[in-house]
Amino acid sequence: MENDFLQLFFYLLPAIVVGLVSYYFFSLHTSNEEKRRRFILHKENQKQSLPLRLQAYERLSLFLERISPGNLLLRVNPVSSNKEDYERLLIRHIEQEFEHNLAQQIYVSDQCWNAVRASKNATISIIRRTNMSDKIENSNKLREVILTDLFDNHPPSETGLAFVKKEVRELF
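The structure corresponding to this sequence follows.
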């Protein structure tokens, strides 16, 4: 009986080895096919999403250029000589531009979006801080002081724009 069991085992051993080797190669083949399909799907998605991502970077670049204090002050003229009214007008323009581009955050990295937000907040901070000065009496003086400060310091939007450009270069 024991001899029959041993003989049966030796007859089944090659079948078991062939079965295990077949299973290994079949699972390896299936895994490679899955990776190939994922690669093709990823490549197709890249074809469709790359133009959208580039458009988002373009819009964020335009936003940063538009909120740059030099461009903003030239584009948005004061309605009255009241410096607080002009401050609110400038900040409202920045916020409207930002809200208009809010959806672009889904196409860019979190670091890039944070850099854009930080540039926006820093620009608003510059406007508010300058307006708090006792030397500023009216809206034209506010414009003049902000523009004069730009000669000494780089605008925050320049830093944000540099980050956006760096991220776009990494795409290619």
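Helices lie at 2-67, 69-75, 83-100, 110-131, 139-152, 156-171.
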